[in-house]
Specification:
single chain, 314 residues, mainly alpha, 14 helices
Length: 314
């Protein structure tokens, strides 16, 4: 008879796991990225091997794909941050006026003392500059991910299949990524047409962040809707155009994020929203901003380990 493990051992294991995830973040985050990317391109690698393409050449091809896609992501992110920096530099005086108006409004509720020492525009600028400077750390993250990625694909074939196609993990994760790519791309194209039609400055920077944020389930579309509000305001004030822009972009985000995507995802993915939000908060706390992108992939992986979680996937 197998002795049952006391329940508090599971709690202790969970605590140690979270501590390990935080402590080894700089190693585990690149590993997670390389595994997710490897899962996505694994069918191309298998196709090459099935057609007698040498292993070295197949690894070279998927490695070039990794370098190209990762470089494009880094470039687009840097371009978006630079666009926001240019926007706040160009509208510094107007932002100061908005800040003064906000402080006057807060003074009615005796809240000004909590904000009077805060330079809102300076904090926004410093935050954007932090993201631009942290691109160097992102570059090192991609470099370490590339090393993991190459070593993964040079593993023996049976080990490679276990890592990148474990049970249904590979198929589920690839389907999830394809759907998110499609939804994010279509959403970005729609809001970009709206931005161009209303002559919004630096719309390219907003469009790039909209594309990236839509990969974050539930919360990403909300942030993507609120993100361009400063640009709407400085382009049209609180005129009818502002409210039409807000309404139209919200409608696009709602249509694709809350109607089209759940309809497509519902055929194979059935995760309650509260579970997704919980995992978003956990991974955001453990691995920072990049961690939220691994919320659903981690759920997919856990569902293949724990049979009780498989009911989340039809």
């Amino acid at each position: 008879m197998v002795k049952r493990i006391p329940f508090y051992y599971n709690g202790l294991l969970l605590v140690l796991s979270v501590i390990g995830l935080i402590y080894f973040r700089n190693i585990l985050l690149p590993l997670a990225y390389s595994l997710c990317f490897g899962v996505f391109v694994y069918p191309f690698y298998k196709w090459g091997r099935a057609h007698k393409i040498p292993k070295g050449l197949s690894v070279l091809v998927v490695s070039l794909v990794f370098v190209f896609v990762s470089s494009m992501l880094l470039y687009l992110f840097a371009f978006a941050i630079q666009g926001w920096l240019d926007f706040f530099n160009a509208h510094g005086k107007e932002l100061a006026v908005v800040q003064d108006s906000l402080l006057d409004y807060l003074d009615r509720f005796d809240l000004e003392e909590y904000f009077v020492d805060q330079k809102i525009t300076e904090h926004i600028m410093s935050m954007l500059q932090f993201f631009s400077f942290s691109i160097v750390s992102y570059l090192s993250l991609f470099a370490l991910s590339f090393i993991f990625y190459v070593f993964i694909f040079f593993a023996p074939e049976r080990h490679l299949q276990r890592m990148l196609d474990f049970r249904d993990t590979g198929a589920l994760l690839r389907t999830y990524i394809r759907i998110k790519l499609f939804i994010s791309l279509v959403t970005t194209v729609c809001v970009s047409f709206i931005f161009v039609a209303f002559d919004i400055d630096y719309w390219e920077s907003v469009a790039i962040l909209v594309f990236i944020l839509n990969f974050i389930p539930n919360l990403g579309s909300i942030v993507a809707t609120l993100l361009p509000l400063p640009m709407f305001y400085f382009a049209h004030g609180f005129e009818p155009e502002f409210w039409f822009l807000l309404l139209s972009t919200s409608l696009v985000q709602f249509t694709f994020g809350n109607m089209v995507e759940p309809k497509i995802m519902g055929s194979f993915l059935n995760i309650p929203g509260i579970v997704v939000v919980f995992f978003l908060l956990v991974w955001g706390k453990v691995w920072g901003a990049l961690g939220v992108f691994f919320a659903v992939p981690s759920l997919i992986f856990l569902s293949q380990i724990n049979p009780k979680l498989r009911r989340l996937f039809a």
